[in-house]
Amino acid sequence: MSKEATPITVQVVTFNTTLPYKEVVARLEAELNKAESPDTFTRFLNAKSNKEWLSVLDKRAQGRDFQYFSELPYSKLMKYGDPEGQEKTGMIAYVFGNPVFAKEIIKHNPLAAYSIPPRFLVIEKPGGTTVTYHQPSSVMSEPQKKSESALMEAVTGLDEKLEKLAERITAV
């Protein structure tokens, strides 16, 4: 048996906006086509052929870069831990992605699968909302191989797409 620990520096990106929490959530859910995608991830996993897999991708994405997979409503978790039983702050982690991007990144770095799919944490704050995520190039690239151009091209491309998504949902 052996054990290895590799230190990495994670870039945590946070967008702050004065937009209300519910507005940011509504914008993100529209961008991810959530209403039409409640079972997208399961459909990907259950696809029996490349054609079926691509059909799920085309139907759910509808020209978007990302698709909704799931969400973790931490505000509800916090509600049950609160003696008063009230949701005091909105907090949801959205899990979304694009299997085409994921496949390309994992092909070059299988360990990137640990950080795929990406997530946005949306938190209600006094006077606005924050959207936070881990920058893909800081968690999906291999620390000792930052020079591998195909991998870096894929993860920096994902960096740009996530940044544009965050900008769209937080723009005032």
Automatic annotation (TrEMBL):
The organism's superkingdom is given as Eukaryota
What the entry lists under Gene3D superfamilies is as follows: TT1751-like domain
Native organism taxonomy:
Eukaryota, Fungi, Dikarya, Basidiomycota, Agaricomycotina
Locate the DUF302 domain: which residues? 90-136
Q: Which interval of the chain is the signal sequence? A: none
Q: What is this protein called?
A: DUF302 domain-containing protein
Species of origin reads Gymnopilus dilepis
